[in-house]
Amino acid sequence: VMSAGAGIGGSHGTWQVGGSLVLGSVAPHDAGDYTCVANNSAGEARYSAHLLVTTPLAVQLTPRNMQVDAGGRLELRCQVTGHPIDNIVWYKDAKQLRAGGRIRIRPREVLHIEMVESSDAGIYQCTAQSQHDFAHDHTLVSLGAASPQLLYRFIEQTLQPGPAVSLKCIATGTPT
C-alpha cells in the first residue's frame, strides 16, 4: 500500500492478514490517494482510492455587534476552521450578499462595505458549507452618527400681515 507515492507501514499503519491497512487514529494529514499493489511472476494488479478526512466546520464572525457611522467603512471577518471548506457565503438580513459597487468580498472570509448608508444596518451572517457539514455565525451592525437629511422643507408663502403662519421642516440624522 502506498500513499502519495510513498510506502505506508511502521508505527502509523498496521497490516492485517489478507492485505488490509489499518490506520489507528485517522488525522487530516492522512488524507490522500492510497494504492494497493499486488505483484507476482505473472504480473501486477493495482487499485487506488482517495481518503478524505473531514473535520467539523466552525465559524466565528468578528467584530461582534458593532456600530459604524454613515459614510464610514465596515469590515467583517469570518474565521472558518474545519476541512474541507467548499463554500463561504455572506448574508444580510437573510438575503445573500454579492460583491459589487460598495461591497467587496476579498478573500471570501472578509466583507468590506465602503461609504456606509443607513440601509447597511442589520444582521450579517457568514455561512461555511461542505458536502458533510454546515456552520454559521452572525453579528448585528447598527448605524452610529449620520449627517442630517431634510425629509420635508417648508414652502414659500406670501401672506398679508395679521394671520398666523406655521412653517414645517422634518429632518433625519443620528444623533437626533
Give your account of this protein's structure:
The protein folds into two domains: 50 residues, no CATH class; 93 residues, Immunoglobulins (Immunoglobulin-like), CATH 2.60.40. Helices cover 0% and strands 55% of the residues. It is built from no helices and 17 strands. The protein is rod-shaped. It starts with a strand and ends with a strand. The mean pLDDT is 87. GO terms for molecular function: axon guidance receptor activity. This is Ig-like domain-containing protein. Keywords: Disulfide bond, Immunoglobulin domain, Signal. InterPro entries: Cell_Adh-Cytoskel_Orgn, Ig-like_dom, Ig-like_dom_sf, Ig-like_fold, Ig_I-set, Ig_sub, Ig_sub2.
Q: Any guess at the CATH architecture of the largest domain?
A: Sandwich
Q: Determine the mean pLDDT.
A: 87
What structural category arises from helix and sheet content? mainly beta
CATH fold descriptor of the largest domain:
Immunoglobulin-like
Helix and strand topology:
Layout: E1 2-3, E2 6-7, E3 13-16, E4 20-23, E5 32-40, E6 43-51, E7 55-62, E8 66-68, E9 74-83, E10 87-92, E11 95-96, E12 103-105, E13 110-113, E14 122-129, E15 134-143, E16 146-152, E17 170-174
Parallel strand pairs: 8-15
Antiparallel strand pairs: 1-2, 1-5, 3-4, 5-6, 7-9, 9-13, 10-11, 10-14, 12-13, 14-15, 16-17
